[in-house]
Design brief:
By secondary structure, this protein is mainly β. It has one domain (95-336): Beta Barrel (Lipocalin), CATH 2.40.128. 9% of the residues lie in helices and 48% in strands. It is built from 2 helices and 14 strands, in the order H-H-E-E-E-E-E-E-E-E-E-E-E-E-E-E. It has helices spanning 2-25, 31-35, and strands at 91-98, 105-108, 120-121, 129-138, 142-158, 163-165, 168-170, 175-194, 203-221, 247-267, 270-281, 285-298, 301-313, 320-336. The strands form 2 sheets. It has a 10-stranded antiparallel beta barrel with strand order 1-4-5-8-9-10-11-12-13-14. A hairpin with a 2-residue loop joins strand 12 and strand 13 (301-313). It is elongated, with a radius of gyration of 57 Å.
């Protein structure tokens, strides 16, 4: 009993005495240093890259290089020469004639202040209405033309009613003479509209752009009325001048004209041609012209024959005006430089 107690006592004593010795052998540490955070040397880190997405080995395919599409240019269309036919190159000079049988009308207008009649049918028939033309080709199939036309006639009649004309008042039953001169000056640009390109085609559709100056001069007289007395002394009028029964007046139209021209070359030396132009402003003036011809080429000359018609009416808003529709056969002779 004593021995077991003595043993427990000794063991307890050893444990009590041995703990301080073990603690004495351990180095003492600074409390402030123990509490300071530990510093580590900075280390260089490689930039992080996203991990590649997992690929399905069953669907993964080799990348293919896109190839450019092969484009083949269409073959060029065959080119045909643009053939120019007579009248489409060089320049030309032409003279022409016609024989209109219609008679122009002279009448009073809305601005007149008298109540008597002013209606006169101009008398006579022209021996011939003549004209001339100069043209030059522009471009491949266009042309510029300058033309002139003149028509004149004179005749006599006895008026059945009192008649008033510019500056004169004729009693009914007077023997009167009339005369007129119609002149026209025209510039025309003939522009190829269809077909284009022409190539070897023989048909032409032209648009005609024209400008015209037309003048109508009318004259009246009473040749049988006496101008002197029995002694040969001239009668004196109210104005103190010798009396005269002659009277004249001119009316004109200055107007653009638009139209269509058709050309058909049946052969190189035979051509059919149809033209129509005109312009009008209501209550002011009206003007139009049309012609159809067949033309035969013989070397550098061309002979044309056919028919033409021309209509005009000067402004009825004035004191007097003139109007006429003239139609007749038509003949022309044309010389070409080439």
């Amino acid at each position: 009993m004593i021995n077991r107690s003595t043993g427990y006592f000794c063991l307890s004593l050893l444990l009590i005495l041995g703990v301080p010795a073990v603690r004495a052998q351990q180095p003492e540490t600074d409390p402030a240093a123990a509490q300071a955070p530990t510093q580590q040397a900075p280390t260089q880190q490689a930039p992080t890259q996203p991990a590649p997405a997992p690929q399905n080995p069953l669907t993964q395919q080799e990348p293919s290089t896109p190839s450019a599409p092969i484009v083949q240019a269409p073959p060029e269309l065959p080119k045909y020469p643009d053939v120019r036919l007579p009248g489409e190159y060089g320049f030309w000079i032409s003279i022409n004639g016609s024989d209109p049988r219609e008679q122009p009308i002279f009448d009073k207008g809305h601005a007149s202040t008298f109540t008597q009649s002013g209606y006169v049918v101009m008398q006579g028939h022209p021996k011939a209405a003549e004209g001339a033309e100069i043209g030059i080709a522009l471009g491949l199939h266009n042309a510029l033309r300058l033309s002139y036309f003149r028509d004149q006639a004179q005749g006599n009649f006895t008026n059945g009613v009192e008649l008033v004309v510019p500056g004169q008042d004729f009693a009914a039953g007077n023997y009167l003479s009339t005369s007129y001169t119609l002149q026209r000056y025209k510039a025309s640009f003939d522009y190829l509209t269809w077909p284009y390109p022409v190539e070897s085609r023989r048909f032409r559709l032209m648009t005609l752009w024209q400008f015209e100056y037309m003048t109508m001069k009318t004259a009246f007289n009473a040749p049988l009325l006496p101008l002197t007395d029995a002694n040969g002394n001239p009668y004196i009028g109210a104005d103190g001048n010798p009396i005269s029964y002659a009277s004249q007046i001119s009316k004109s139209i200055i107007s653009p004209e638009l139209g269509i021209g058709l050309r058909e070359y049946l052969t190189k030396n035979f051509r059919l041609e149809l033209n129509g132009t005109g312009f009008a402003i209501p209550h002011h003036w009206t003007i139009w012209e049309a012609d159809v011809t067949a033309n035969i080429r013989i070397k550098q000359f061309e002979v044309g024959f056919g028919a033409k018609a021309f209509h005009f009416k000067t402004s009825p808003e004035q004191d007097f005006f003139s109007r006429a529709t003239l139609a007749s056969p038509f003949v022309s002779i044309k010389w070409f430089s080439q």
